[in-house]
Every structure is written in structure tokens, then in C-alpha cells.
Amino acid sequence: MIDDATKEIVRKRANYLCEYCHSPERISTTRFTVDHLIPKSIGGSDELNNLALACRRCNERRYNFVAGYDSETNAVVPLFNPRQQIWSEHFFWSADGKTIIGVTPVGRATCKRLDINDERYPEDDSIRSARSFWVNAGLHPPSEDPRAS
């Protein structure tokens, strides 16, 4: 079990953003979860370098997957790892701030595995609608990647 002090370290380190979709925790009705990059079910630990802050949506969709399929290269590749990779090297925001675009095999596979833009079920574009609201409120997209500095 991850103690409260460790959870707070993870939250601060992530600048209170989901480390996958960059949703801000401050506008969520509940605190984000601590995700295991290598799930405990396949041997992962509670060590800080194996933990990431994740919104419930991304955490549930990531489940215990560590890899995804990149349709551009037809390869199975590891999912984005915020402890080893910089978000802005694998993803960028569309001009309207509503869509995350994967620009590398890792980025594309992560977008697909986590259905980061609700593309699997186009009739349910709730995340893009929420992002549109956040953009209009001046809360999104985040100004910088905390690992890029």
C-alpha cells in the first residue's frame, strides 16, 4: 500500500497533472490515482520510479498494459513512461487544445491504448468537450511539461 506521503510526492512531481493526458487534478471532483508503470500484477513495485499520477480515466484504460500497437509502424511498442520520457517529445496538443496527438510510435500507441481522445466511441467525446471547457476557462492546456525543465 502506498502511504499518503508518497502519494503527495507523486502528485507534486507531476505538477498535479495526469502524466498521460495532462488533465489538471484541480478541476477533478476526486484526487487522481497513483498508477504503477509496471503493474504490481506483473512484478512492479511501489518505488517512486515506478509510480505516476493518473486521472481515473487513464488509470482504468491503462489497466495492466505496458505496451500498445502503433498502426503507423505496425509495431507493438512500450506505452509512454513519464519516469523515463518527456511528454512533449511524444505528444502535442491540437491548435484548439482539445486533442492530444501522438507523434512517435510510443505516443501513438499510448493515445490508442488509453483512448486518450475518446476516438473508440466517437459519440462519447466527453474528454474533448471537457477540454474545450477547460480551454475556454483558461485552465488548459498546461503551460509546460514538468519534466522538460
UniProtKB/TrEMBL annotation:
Taxonomic superkingdom? Bacteria
Q: Which InterPro entries match?
A: HNH, HNH_nuc, NA-targeting_endonuclease
Q: Which UniProt keywords apply?
A: Endonuclease, Hydrolase, Nuclease
Indicate the segments annotated as coiled coil, or none if absent.
none
CDD domains associated with the record: HNHc (cd00085)
Which SMART domains does the entry mention? Answer: HNHc (SM00507)
Q: Which residues form the HNH nuclease domain?
A: 5-60
This entry's Gene Ontology molecular function terms read: endonuclease activity; nucleic acid binding; zinc ion binding
Q: Which PANTHER family match?
A: SLL1193 PROTEIN, TYPE IV METHYL-DIRECTED RESTRICTION ENZYME ECOKMCRA
Q: What is this protein called?
A: HNH endonuclease
Give the organism the record lists: Nostoc cycadae WK-1
**Source organism phylogeny:** Bacteria, Bacillati, Cyanobacteriota, Cyanophyceae, Nostocales
